[in-house]
Design goal:
The protein has a single domain, classed as Phosphatase 2c, domain 1 (4-Layer Sandwich). The chain has eight helices and 14 strands. β5 and β6 form a beta hairpin. It is globular, with a radius of gyration of 18 Å.
């Protein structure tokens, strides 16, 4: 495990309030929310954003929601490890954005499997964009990505890896998740052009009936109002599970990519931010944190993501959700590593925190 990954994990496992809705002053394009809910004692969701600012235009913005799988081993640890490994894989890799995303989720899958042996895992949904205009949706499990805009259409851009949605069966048991093992085939797709806003949610938010969820997104004039309303609504509907989401103003996030950062890498969650100053290699690029071999991406045809070559991910009308928590399970192996890091700075967000207003 790299120093970079260890620091992210430790930071994500720090003691924080039970809930928050936050919009960082230095990341105004993203609003993040999380809530332990009314029936859980531990928050196994993780929501965070990553900014990487290398030289030669190697800039990347990432927003991700991860949900540790209830009923399995160490949900909080698996979710934290999945997110930290995913971010580490993106920071260390080069090449096309889809290659980087595939290597990153493969590294996350390997890391969680190595820890839990298939007896624990997490879902992961994320969007990745770079300063060249390339975009990628990365998805595994039943967290979700929606596109929306004030008074415009709401579309779900991901399909749950559940019995019901993946193979037309019954029940919400997951067929795929981070930590399942070498059979993993993540969904990789592009963000549709002309997308204004994105919502990435855990099932503690999208358990809300689909027409209600759609109505909230349609009638929210800002990403902040969408985040606040859905966070409150999840509680009003009983708060049966951890509820987390990231809400993205995509044009603003793309605009932020064009502005150089004062640090090489920075991470935000609903409670604060973590900054890194990383070494540059001889070419002036950020030194890789691990060397992910190319064959991790170029797998045989039958093992590739079935969506990898699609220009757009599948879209569909909002389905009816139900309130039952998923049962989830599966397995995998090991991964290379390397050490890097110079300086770390931890800051609090300027966004509001609801942690003191608990039920």
């Amino acid at each position: 495990m790299t120093f970079f990954q260890q620091k992210i994990e430790k930071w994500l496992l720090r003691t924080v309030p039970e809930r928050a809705v936050s919009q960082a002053f230095d990341l105004p394009a993203v609003v993040m929310t999380t809530d332990v809910g009314l029936h859980r004692t531990e928050n196994q969701d993780r929501v965070a954003a990553l900014s990487i600012d290398g030289t030669k235009g190697d800039r990347l913005k990432v927003v991700a929601v991860v949900d540790g799988m209830g009923g399995m081993r160490d949900g909080e640890k698996c979710a934290t490890l999945a997110l930290a490994s995913f971010f580490t894989g993106l920071a260390s890799s080069r090449g096309h954005i889809h290659q980087r995303a595939y290597r990153a989720i493969s590294f996350a899958n390997d890391s969680v499997f190595k820890f839990a042996g298939g007896k624990g895992g997490a879902t992961l949904s994320a969007i990745v964009i770079d300063s060249r205009g390339a975009t990628c949706i990365v998805h595994l499990g039943d967290s979700r990505v929606y596109s929306f805009g004030h008074n415009s259409r709401v579309e779900r851009l991901t399909k749950d890896d559940s019995l019901a949605e993946a193979v037309g069966g019954h029940g919400r048991e997951l067929l795929q998740f981070v930590g399942m093992g070498p059979e993993m085939q993540p969904f990789l797709g592009e963000i549709p052009k002309e997308t204004k806003n994105l919502a990435i949610t855990s099932d503690g938010i999208h358990f809300i009936e689909a027409p209600t969820l759609q109505s909230v997104l349609l009638n929210s004039s800002t990403i902040r109002s969408a985040a606040e309303r859905l966070a409150a609504l999840a509680r009003w509907c009983g708060g049966p599970d951890n509820a987390s989401g990231a809400f993205v103003d995509l044009p603003l996030l793309v605009q932020e990519l064009l502005s150089p950062s004062e640090v090489n890498a920075q991470i935000w969650d609903p409670f604060g931010s973590l900054s890194f100053e990383m070494k540059l290699d001889n070419s002036g690029e950020l030194s890789p944190l691990l060397q992910a071999p190319m064959q991790n991406f170029e797998r045989p045809n039958e093992a590739k993501s079935p969506h990898l070559d699609d220009k757009k991910p599948p879209r569909e009308s909002l389905p009816q959700a139900n309130t039952k928590k998923n049962n989830k399970r599966k397995r995998k192996e090991s991964v290379p590593k390397e050490d890097i890091q110079l300086e770390i700075k931890i800051e609090g967000n300027s966004g509001e925190d609801d942690g003191d207003n608990r039920q």
